[in-house]
Amino acid sequence: MEHKLYYRDAYLKKFSAELIEQKEDTAGRKYVTLSETAFYPTGGGQPFDTGYLNGIEVVDVEEVDDEIRHYIKDSLVVCDHIEGEINWERRFDHMQQHAGQHILSAAFEEMYGYKTVSFHLGKDTLTIDLDTERLVAKEAAKVEELANQVILENRPIITKWVDEEELKLYRLRKELSVSHNIRLVIIPDFDYNGCGGTHPNSTAEVGSLKILGWERQKKIVRVEFVCGQRVINQLGKKHEIIKELTVQLNAPEQDLSAAVNRLLGQKKELEKSVEELKEKLLKFEAAEIIRAGKTDIVSTVFQDRSIQELQKLARLLAVDAEEKVFLLVSENKDKLQFVLAKGKNAEGNLKEWAKEALSLIEGKGGGNETLVQGGGKLISGEEFIRKVTGFIQSCE
Ligand SMILES: [Zn+2]
């Protein structure tokens, strides 16, 4: 443990060490090991530190078989003396989040008996999974209040190495899997935890804690939250969005929800009138097609019309001209769609015609004795009509 400087001083930003080895792992990634290091390796839910070793960027840190591997972007010039510097902003953020997680987990357990079963420290937010099937807003609010109270009280966060005998003196939140080199992280009279992460010296350094939301997942509840600087970041991000919305919706912040509801209501009404207008327009379109259609087989090519629209139009046509056959074709993005319909007094076997039409475009379709719809590969609508019409006429 002696070589893990972050355990001696979690605030250590720069350090000197001797180079032990420079190697490549089985995946071909370059790494170095040092006589001692302030770089924290991924572990216990806390991500690794980044930084520099003699000016070379450290991009990952892992502990493998008791050695701490500093994965580096480029090879180090081999020399005995290494100057290391960790990315303090990143590390302090991890310390704030990690300690905040201890406090929140302890508050949930203290107030409602909900145990934390896992923890994830993400790039923007954190989550803990609580061993409960439900969490209500009132509980979350009370827990958040207690957590912030503990932060405000500026309580010490103490770390202590103990053996199995000493361990019995503490009421731990979780059974430990290790039996030697046990490291306890203690907030007196509040939280006793076995933990290998880095933490600030007092709860006040967590700054503040905000629960952002939660969701039920199988048998647990996943709570999302942020601490410290991330609370400010979240506030800033959300405030930017709100500011933009107040301009877009021309409403003050407190009226945004009402303004959106109003918009949604208007949208619904507009959609309804568009539907009604479309129906009316289809009737005009049908009348126009019948007026122009001098032959027994009336056909039209459209662009980007839905099959539903073609069906509606075909039904209107078939009612208005009972002795005619209608072939409505639409050249859509990557396929040709069509509706073939006939008035009740028109002669011929519609399904047989449709079969021929579908074979022209390697398509699929279905329908009944008076209306069939189908679609297949995109060919020219005019050419399709010429071929299908020719076939229908040859059947007569
Ligand atoms: Zn911890």
Automatic annotation (TrEMBL):
InterPro entries: Ala-tRNA-synth_IIc_core, Ala-tRNA-synth_IIc_N, Alanyl-tRNA_Editing_Enzymes, DHHA1_dom, Thr/Ala-tRNA-synth_IIc_edit, Transl_B-barrel_sf, tRNA_SAD
Top-level taxon of origin: Bacteria
Pfam families tied to this protein: DHHA1 (PF02272), tRNA-synt_2c (PF01411), tRNA_SAD (PF07973)
Essential cofactor(s): Zn(2+)
Subcellular localization(s) per the UniProt record: Cytoplasm
Main localization category: cytoplasm
Coiled coil spans: 253-287
Domain Alanyl-transfer RNA synthetases family profile, residue spans: 1-237
Keywords (A to Z) from UniProt: Coiled coil, Metal-binding, Zinc
Keyword Metal-binding: yes
Name of the featured protein: DHHA1 domain-containing protein
Organism of derivation: Mesobacillus jeotgali
